[in-house]
Amino acid sequence: MLPPTTDPSLLYRLRDGIAAVDAVAAAIVHLDLFTSLVREPADVAGVARRFALHPRPTDVLCTLLAAQGLLHRDATGGLEVTPTAREFLVAGSPFDARAYYAAMRDRPGVADFLEVLRRGRPANWPGEEGEADWHAAMRSEAFAEAFTAAMDCRGHVLAPAVAAAVDLSAAARVLDVGGGSGVYSIGLADSFSRLRATVLEAPPVDAIARRTIHAAGLDSRIDVVAADMFAAAWPAGHDVHLFSNVLHDWDEPDCRRLLARAAAALPPGGRILIHDMLLDDGKDGPLWAAEYSVLLSTVTQGRLYSAAEIGGWLGELGFEIVARSPTALGRSILTATRGRS
Ligand SMILES: C[S@@+](CC[C@H](N)C(=O)[O-])C[C@H]1O[C@@H](n2cnc3c(N)ncnc32)[C@H](O)[C@@H]1O
User: Fold this and answer.
1) Index of the ligand 1 atom closest to the CA of residue 152
2) Closest Cα to atom 15, ligand 1: which residue?
3) Is CATH 2.40.100.10 correct for 141-282+302-338?
4) How far is residue 117 from each of residues 59, 253, 286, 319, measured CA to CA in Å?
5) pLDDT tens sequence across 302-318
Protein backbone atom coordinates (compact mmCIF):
# COMPACT_ATOMS: atom_id res chain seq x y z
CA MET A 1 0.00 0.00 0.00
CA LEU A 2 1.66 3.23 -1.15
CA PRO A 3 1.30 6.62 0.58
CA PRO A 4 -0.17 9.53 -1.44
CA THR A 5 2.19 11.73 -3.46
CA THR A 6 0.76 15.03 -2.15
CA ASP A 7 -0.24 16.17 1.33
CA PRO A 8 -4.02 16.10 2.05
CA SER A 9 -3.64 17.55 5.59
CA LEU A 10 -5.67 20.69 4.85
CA LEU A 11 -8.63 18.68 3.55
CA TYR A 12 -8.69 16.46 6.62
CA ARG A 13 -8.07 19.35 8.99
CA LEU A 14 -10.96 21.41 7.64
CA ARG A 15 -13.37 18.52 8.09
CA ASP A 16 -12.02 17.55 11.52
CA GLY A 17 -12.42 21.14 12.74
CA ILE A 18 -15.89 21.77 11.38
CA ALA A 19 -17.67 21.86 14.77
CA ALA A 20 -15.10 23.96 16.64
CA VAL A 21 -16.33 27.45 15.74
CA ASP A 22 -19.84 26.55 16.88
CA ALA A 23 -18.40 25.41 20.23
CA VAL A 24 -16.61 28.74 20.69
CA ALA A 25 -19.81 30.60 19.80
CA ALA A 26 -21.74 28.53 22.37
CA ALA A 27 -19.18 29.49 25.04
CA ILE A 28 -19.32 33.19 24.17
CA VAL A 29 -22.98 33.72 23.35
CA HIS A 30 -24.84 31.22 25.52
CA LEU A 31 -22.55 30.79 28.53
CA ASP A 32 -20.72 34.16 28.52
CA LEU A 33 -17.95 31.96 29.87
CA PHE A 34 -15.12 34.50 29.84
CA THR A 35 -17.06 37.17 31.77
CA SER A 36 -18.08 34.49 34.25
CA LEU A 37 -14.50 33.24 34.73
CA VAL A 38 -13.10 36.75 35.23
CA ARG A 39 -15.70 37.38 37.93
CA GLU A 40 -15.27 33.99 39.57
CA PRO A 41 -12.35 31.77 38.50
CA ALA A 42 -12.87 27.99 38.32
CA ASP A 43 -11.34 24.79 37.03
CA VAL A 44 -13.05 22.51 34.46
CA ALA A 45 -15.11 20.73 37.12
CA GLY A 46 -16.15 24.11 38.54
CA VAL A 47 -17.26 25.31 35.11
CA ALA A 48 -19.31 22.14 34.66
CA ARG A 49 -20.98 22.66 38.06
CA ARG A 50 -21.63 26.36 37.56
CA PHE A 51 -23.43 25.92 34.25
CA ALA A 52 -24.87 22.42 34.95
CA LEU A 53 -22.80 20.88 32.14
CA HIS A 54 -21.53 17.35 31.56
CA PRO A 55 -17.83 16.94 32.47
CA ARG A 56 -16.73 15.28 29.18
CA PRO A 57 -17.78 18.01 26.70
CA THR A 58 -16.87 20.71 29.25
CA ASP A 59 -13.32 19.33 29.24
CA VAL A 60 -13.40 19.28 25.42
CA LEU A 61 -14.52 22.92 25.30
CA CYS A 62 -11.88 24.10 27.80
CA THR A 63 -9.18 22.21 25.86
CA LEU A 64 -10.31 23.96 22.67
CA LEU A 65 -10.30 27.40 24.29
CA ALA A 66 -6.85 26.73 25.77
CA ALA A 67 -5.53 25.59 22.38
CA GLN A 68 -6.93 28.79 20.87
CA GLY A 69 -5.13 30.96 23.43
CA LEU A 70 -8.36 32.20 25.04
CA LEU A 71 -7.90 30.29 28.31
CA HIS A 72 -4.74 29.23 30.10
CA ARG A 73 -4.78 26.11 32.26
CA ASP A 74 -2.53 26.81 35.27
CA ALA A 75 -0.49 24.15 37.07
CA THR A 76 -3.35 23.29 39.42
CA GLY A 77 -5.94 23.00 36.63
CA GLY A 78 -7.38 26.49 37.21
CA LEU A 79 -8.61 28.30 34.09
CA GLU A 80 -7.20 31.79 33.56
CA VAL A 81 -8.75 34.13 31.01
CA THR A 82 -5.91 35.25 28.72
CA PRO A 83 -5.26 38.94 27.95
CA THR A 84 -6.82 38.58 24.46
CA ALA A 85 -10.00 37.02 25.81
CA ARG A 86 -10.12 39.63 28.59
CA GLU A 87 -9.96 42.44 26.06
CA PHE A 88 -12.45 41.03 23.54
CA LEU A 89 -14.75 38.56 25.28
CA VAL A 90 -15.52 40.06 28.69
CA ALA A 91 -18.36 42.47 29.56
CA GLY A 92 -17.22 46.02 30.22
CA SER A 93 -14.15 45.97 27.97
CA PRO A 94 -14.02 48.81 25.42
CA PHE A 95 -13.22 46.22 22.74
CA ASP A 96 -15.94 43.77 23.81
CA ALA A 97 -16.55 41.69 20.65
CA ARG A 98 -19.26 39.42 22.01
CA ALA A 99 -21.83 41.19 19.82
CA TYR A 100 -19.91 39.95 16.76
CA TYR A 101 -20.73 36.38 17.79
CA ALA A 102 -24.30 37.08 18.94
CA ALA A 103 -25.66 36.61 15.42
CA MET A 104 -24.36 33.01 15.56
CA ARG A 105 -26.65 32.26 18.50
CA ASP A 106 -29.23 30.18 16.58
CA ARG A 107 -26.93 28.21 14.29
CA PRO A 108 -27.88 24.49 14.43
CA GLY A 109 -24.29 23.53 15.28
CA VAL A 110 -24.27 25.92 18.24
CA ALA A 111 -27.54 24.41 19.50
CA ASP A 112 -26.12 20.89 18.99
CA PHE A 113 -23.00 21.62 21.01
CA LEU A 114 -25.04 23.22 23.79
CA GLU A 115 -27.17 20.07 23.87
CA VAL A 116 -24.05 17.93 24.14
CA LEU A 117 -22.71 20.17 26.90
CA ARG A 118 -25.93 19.92 28.85
CA ARG A 119 -26.86 16.27 28.32
CA GLY A 120 -23.44 14.69 27.76
CA ARG A 121 -24.95 12.80 24.88
CA PRO A 122 -24.42 13.22 21.16
CA ALA A 123 -26.69 15.49 19.20
CA ASN A 124 -28.11 14.14 15.95
CA TRP A 125 -25.71 12.90 13.33
CA PRO A 126 -26.94 14.40 10.08
CA GLY A 127 -28.32 12.02 7.47
CA GLU A 128 -30.10 9.22 9.30
CA GLU A 129 -33.62 9.97 10.39
CA GLY A 130 -34.50 8.59 13.76
CA GLU A 131 -30.94 7.68 14.70
CA ALA A 132 -29.94 9.52 17.83
CA ASP A 133 -26.18 9.15 17.54
CA TRP A 134 -23.34 7.71 15.53
CA HIS A 135 -23.21 4.45 17.47
CA ALA A 136 -26.88 3.72 16.80
CA ALA A 137 -26.61 4.87 13.18
CA MET A 138 -23.77 2.37 12.59
CA ARG A 139 -26.29 -0.46 12.84
CA SER A 140 -27.93 0.72 9.61
CA GLU A 141 -26.31 -0.69 6.45
CA ALA A 142 -26.48 2.55 4.45
CA PHE A 143 -24.90 4.64 7.21
CA ALA A 144 -22.28 1.97 7.99
CA GLU A 145 -21.28 1.84 4.30
CA ALA A 146 -20.94 5.62 4.07
CA PHE A 147 -19.10 5.99 7.37
CA THR A 148 -16.78 3.05 6.74
CA ALA A 149 -15.94 4.52 3.32
CA ALA A 150 -14.89 7.71 5.14
CA MET A 151 -12.64 5.73 7.50
CA ASP A 152 -11.29 3.66 4.62
CA CYS A 153 -10.22 6.61 2.46
CA ARG A 154 -8.50 8.20 5.45
CA GLY A 155 -6.90 4.81 6.11
CA HIS A 156 -5.30 4.87 2.67
CA VAL A 157 -3.28 7.85 3.92
CA LEU A 158 -2.74 6.62 7.47
CA ALA A 159 -2.21 2.87 7.10
CA PRO A 160 1.09 3.13 5.17
CA ALA A 161 2.27 5.62 7.81
CA VAL A 162 1.26 3.24 10.62
CA ALA A 163 3.13 0.39 8.92
CA ALA A 164 6.22 2.61 8.63
CA ALA A 165 5.99 3.72 12.27
CA VAL A 166 5.91 0.30 14.00
CA ASP A 167 8.11 -2.72 13.53
CA LEU A 168 5.94 -5.84 13.43
CA SER A 169 8.50 -8.02 11.68
CA ALA A 170 8.68 -10.30 14.74
CA ALA A 171 4.94 -10.24 15.47
CA ALA A 172 2.72 -13.20 14.62
CA ARG A 173 -0.86 -11.97 14.58
CA VAL A 174 -2.57 -8.62 15.07
CA LEU A 175 -6.07 -8.23 16.46
CA ASP A 176 -7.44 -5.10 14.78
CA VAL A 177 -10.14 -4.11 17.29
CA GLY A 178 -12.94 -2.12 15.61
CA GLY A 179 -10.87 -2.42 12.44
CA GLY A 180 -13.45 -0.89 10.07
CA SER A 181 -12.86 -1.86 6.43
CA GLY A 182 -9.68 -3.68 7.41
CA VAL A 183 -7.51 -1.06 5.75
CA TYR A 184 -4.96 -1.02 8.61
CA SER A 185 -4.70 -4.82 8.68
CA ILE A 186 -4.21 -4.73 4.92
CA GLY A 187 -1.50 -2.07 5.21
CA LEU A 188 0.31 -4.03 7.93
CA ALA A 189 0.02 -7.36 6.09
CA ASP A 190 1.37 -5.63 3.00
CA SER A 191 4.44 -4.36 4.89
CA PHE A 192 5.17 -7.41 7.05
CA SER A 193 5.10 -10.53 4.91
CA ARG A 194 4.79 -13.06 7.78
CA LEU A 195 2.12 -11.17 9.68
CA ARG A 196 -1.45 -12.41 9.97
CA ALA A 197 -4.36 -10.33 11.25
CA THR A 198 -7.93 -10.54 12.49
CA VAL A 199 -10.39 -7.70 12.15
CA LEU A 200 -12.86 -7.65 15.05
CA GLU A 201 -15.93 -5.72 13.91
CA ALA A 202 -19.59 -5.31 14.69
CA PRO A 203 -22.16 -6.13 12.01
CA PRO A 204 -22.77 -4.82 9.41
CA VAL A 205 -19.19 -3.48 9.12
CA ASP A 206 -17.74 -7.02 9.30
CA ALA A 207 -19.21 -7.70 5.83
CA ILE A 208 -17.56 -4.56 4.46
CA ALA A 209 -14.23 -5.69 5.92
CA ARG A 210 -14.57 -9.15 4.33
CA ARG A 211 -15.30 -7.55 0.96
CA THR A 212 -12.35 -5.12 1.21
CA ILE A 213 -9.90 -7.81 2.33
CA HIS A 214 -11.06 -10.11 -0.47
CA ALA A 215 -10.55 -7.30 -3.02
CA ALA A 216 -7.00 -6.85 -1.65
CA GLY A 217 -6.36 -10.60 -2.18
CA LEU A 218 -5.59 -11.12 1.50
CA ASP A 219 -8.34 -13.56 2.64
CA SER A 220 -5.72 -16.17 3.46
CA ARG A 221 -3.88 -13.86 5.90
CA ILE A 222 -6.63 -11.67 7.37
CA ASP A 223 -9.71 -13.08 9.12
CA VAL A 224 -12.79 -11.15 10.11
CA VAL A 225 -14.69 -11.91 13.31
CA ALA A 226 -18.14 -10.39 13.80
CA ALA A 227 -18.54 -9.58 17.49
CA ASP A 228 -19.36 -6.90 20.01
CA MET A 229 -15.94 -5.89 21.33
CA PHE A 230 -17.42 -5.04 24.75
CA ALA A 231 -19.36 -8.27 25.26
CA ALA A 232 -17.97 -11.18 23.22
CA ALA A 233 -14.84 -13.20 24.02
CA TRP A 234 -11.99 -11.88 21.89
CA PRO A 235 -10.33 -14.35 19.51
CA ALA A 236 -7.22 -15.88 21.08
CA GLY A 237 -3.73 -16.23 19.64
CA HIS A 238 -2.87 -12.59 18.95
CA ASP A 239 0.34 -10.99 20.21
CA VAL A 240 -0.52 -7.44 19.10
CA HIS A 241 -3.79 -5.60 19.69
CA LEU A 242 -4.38 -2.52 17.55
CA PHE A 243 -6.89 0.20 18.50
CA SER A 244 -6.94 2.56 15.56
CA ASN A 245 -9.27 5.53 16.01
CA VAL A 246 -11.35 3.49 18.43
CA LEU A 247 -10.77 4.96 21.91
CA HIS A 248 -11.87 8.42 20.76
CA ASP A 249 -15.41 7.08 20.23
CA TRP A 250 -15.84 6.22 23.92
CA ASP A 251 -15.88 7.87 27.32
CA GLU A 252 -13.15 7.01 29.81
CA PRO A 253 -14.87 4.03 31.54
CA ASP A 254 -15.43 2.30 28.18
CA CYS A 255 -11.84 3.00 27.05
CA ARG A 256 -10.62 1.43 30.27
CA ARG A 257 -12.87 -1.62 29.68
CA LEU A 258 -11.45 -2.10 26.19
CA LEU A 259 -7.85 -1.77 27.34
CA ALA A 260 -8.51 -4.15 30.24
CA ARG A 261 -9.85 -6.73 27.77
CA ALA A 262 -6.67 -6.37 25.73
CA ALA A 263 -4.43 -6.64 28.78
CA ALA A 264 -6.23 -9.79 29.92
CA ALA A 265 -6.03 -11.46 26.49
CA LEU A 266 -2.46 -10.64 25.46
CA PRO A 267 0.35 -13.15 26.13
CA PRO A 268 3.52 -12.11 27.99
CA GLY A 269 5.46 -9.86 25.64
CA GLY A 270 2.23 -8.82 23.88
CA ARG A 271 1.85 -5.28 22.61
CA ILE A 272 -1.01 -2.79 22.63
CA LEU A 273 -0.90 -0.27 19.78
CA ILE A 274 -3.05 2.85 20.02
CA HIS A 275 -3.33 4.87 16.85
CA ASP A 276 -5.19 8.14 17.20
CA MET A 277 -4.92 11.89 17.29
CA LEU A 278 -3.54 12.80 20.72
CA LEU A 279 -3.97 15.88 22.89
CA ASP A 280 -0.89 17.37 24.53
CA ASP A 281 -0.51 16.23 28.13
CA GLY A 282 -1.31 19.79 29.32
CA LYS A 283 -4.65 19.60 27.44
CA ASP A 284 -3.96 22.90 25.67
CA GLY A 285 -3.27 21.72 22.13
CA PRO A 286 -2.50 20.90 19.41
CA LEU A 287 -5.23 23.07 17.89
CA TRP A 288 -6.13 20.49 15.20
CA ALA A 289 -6.66 17.84 17.89
CA ALA A 290 -8.61 20.21 20.14
CA GLU A 291 -10.90 21.06 17.22
CA TYR A 292 -11.38 17.42 16.20
CA SER A 293 -12.18 16.51 19.80
CA VAL A 294 -15.18 18.87 19.59
CA LEU A 295 -16.50 17.04 16.54
CA LEU A 296 -16.02 13.66 18.24
CA SER A 297 -17.74 14.82 21.42
CA THR A 298 -20.67 16.00 19.33
CA VAL A 299 -21.27 12.78 17.39
CA THR A 300 -19.88 9.98 19.57
CA GLN A 301 -19.66 9.16 23.26
CA GLY A 302 -15.96 10.04 23.27
CA ARG A 303 -13.33 12.71 22.77
CA LEU A 304 -9.60 12.78 22.12
CA TYR A 305 -7.24 11.87 24.93
CA SER A 306 -3.65 12.72 25.81
CA ALA A 307 -0.87 10.15 25.98
CA ALA A 308 -0.73 10.90 29.72
CA GLU A 309 -4.41 9.99 30.14
CA ILE A 310 -4.06 6.77 28.15
CA GLY A 311 -0.76 5.96 29.85
CA GLY A 312 -2.45 6.33 33.25
CA TRP A 313 -5.14 3.77 32.36
CA LEU A 314 -2.53 1.41 30.90
CA GLY A 315 -0.36 1.81 34.01
CA GLU A 316 -3.20 0.53 36.18
CA LEU A 317 -3.29 -2.56 33.93
CA GLY A 318 0.46 -3.17 34.32
CA PHE A 319 1.32 -1.77 30.87
CA GLU A 320 3.52 1.19 30.01
CA ILE A 321 3.92 3.27 26.88
CA VAL A 322 7.36 2.47 25.48
CA ALA A 323 7.20 4.31 22.14
CA ARG A 324 5.32 7.12 20.45
CA SER A 325 5.65 7.93 16.74
CA PRO A 326 3.82 10.33 14.45
CA THR A 327 1.98 8.70 11.56
CA ALA A 328 0.21 11.20 9.24
CA LEU A 329 -2.58 13.82 9.37
CA GLY A 330 -1.59 14.85 12.89
CA ARG A 331 -2.12 11.31 14.22
CA SER A 332 0.34 9.24 16.28
CA ILE A 333 0.83 5.67 17.36
CA LEU A 334 1.60 4.59 20.93
CA THR A 335 3.17 1.21 21.73
CA ALA A 336 2.57 -0.23 25.18
CA THR A 337 4.03 -3.37 26.73
CA ARG A 338 3.82 -4.93 30.17
CA GLY A 339 5.95 -2.99 32.65
CA ARG A 340 8.93 -4.66 34.31
CA SER A 341 7.59 -4.61 37.88
C1 LIG B 1 -13.99 5.34 14.14
S2 LIG B 1 -14.14 3.73 13.48
C3 LIG B 1 -12.45 3.27 13.27
C4 LIG B 1 -12.27 2.24 12.21
C5 LIG B 1 -10.80 1.89 11.91
N6 LIG B 1 -10.18 1.22 13.03
C7 LIG B 1 -10.04 3.13 11.54
O8 LIG B 1 -9.03 3.46 12.19
O9 LIG B 1 -10.43 3.81 10.57
C10 LIG B 1 -14.63 2.75 14.89
C11 LIG B 1 -15.03 1.34 14.53
O12 LIG B 1 -15.42 0.67 15.71
C13 LIG B 1 -16.45 -0.23 15.37
N14 LIG B 1 -17.24 -0.57 16.55
C15 LIG B 1 -18.05 0.26 17.26
N16 LIG B 1 -18.63 -0.38 18.26
C17 LIG B 1 -18.19 -1.68 18.19
C18 LIG B 1 -18.45 -2.84 18.97
N19 LIG B 1 -19.25 -2.79 20.04
N20 LIG B 1 -17.81 -3.98 18.62
C21 LIG B 1 -16.97 -4.02 17.54
N22 LIG B 1 -16.69 -2.95 16.78
C23 LIG B 1 -17.30 -1.79 17.10
C24 LIG B 1 -17.26 0.53 14.34
O25 LIG B 1 -18.06 -0.36 13.55
C26 LIG B 1 -16.20 1.27 13.56
O27 LIG B 1 -15.81 0.58 12.40
Assistant:
1) 9
2) 178
3) no
4) 10, 19, 22, 33
5) 999 999 999 999 999 99
